[in-house]
Design brief:
By secondary structure, this protein is mainly α. The protein has eleven helices and no strands. It is rod-shaped and about 115 Å long.
Length: 252
Amino acid sequence: MIKFFRKIRQNLLTEGKTGKYLKYAIGEIVLVVIGILIALQINNWNESRKNRNQERNFLVRLQAEIKTDVENISNAIRANKNRMERAEFLLGSIDKPKLAEDSATYFIQSIEYAGYTNDPVISDNTFEEIKSSGKLSLIRNERLRSKIQDYYSWTSERGQYNFIRQDNQLNYFKERRGILSSRQQINMGSFTQTEQYSTSEAKEVYERMINKPGFLELLPFTIQSQIRTGESFESIKKQAIELNKMIEEEIE
């Protein structure tokens, strides 16, 4: 650039064409500046387009995972309700042994299944990829970005509650030992084959259950745990459905 101006100055001095060369120099500078600005604008446009494409890709993937989450949570809610009903049935049968006799198979199976708990699988693969790559800011909608972060913080925030729930489940498994016969306990290992039990078998299991005060004392706590679990699942399902709707609107 210095050489360029020196050349202009030399031409001005030697040829005396000050106005002509000054206009020429200014014109050249303006053209260079315009070219630079155009190049920067094109580069910014390309970068913005890449970011928007990446944002859309992230949102589409998040939406697909959240839809699967809703299905998993719904399944967990149904399973939880079934287990709670079994625990309530066992509690009711304490004072009404005929309930156990009239529904022998359901009663015996409930001894095994009433205390089970499980968490729905929440897929956070895409969210973790976005977060670890530092690209969460690509999601321009601040409200949506905040909702996404809130949704995926659910699992970590439930640590203490999960500990209590799992502790209750372990205690249930411990206290139910000896209520079912060895054959009955083995039969419970199959999820595909259902054994049918007789009234006499139900009476025997009932007598062993009644003589397990630790097990009987756990039933109200088991029901309480299932109620809390169900409410927690319903809450996260509602959150997932709302988030899915927000993402869908953003994509459109």
